[in-house]
Amino acid sequence: MNAAVMPMSRPTTISLWVLRVLLAVLFLAAAIMKFTGAPMIVAEFDLVGLGQWFRYVTATLELAGAVLLLVPAVSRLGAILLLFIDAGAFVAQVERIHMDWVHTIVIGGLLVLTLYLQRRAVTARVDPIRSS
To answer: Are 81 and 61 in contact, with CB atoms under 8 Å apart?
Structure first.
């Protein structure tokens, strides 16, 4: 069996699940705050200048990404979606909101780590001949 497609070790699997759940809870909480119209979030989206409709779009994408992250078969898709949202949040923080942008870098790093830990599963799906 090719080393690139060997099953993940138990510690890696546990770490990956911890990351998935942590990130899913984080983005689910963010989506709920956006959907419920938390005053701080409404003010931030006012500063962004795209209108409050954008808050609902972002919340919907965060909710979808959080759910996808918890489904192993599509977890990478969820992580990629959330990484794009996080990159947008970073740009908004730096360019418009001018508040703490460090958290977007930390979250982005955790999403990249999640993608990295899943690389073997993707290789096995993309190239099934090598995995047999």
So the answer is: yes
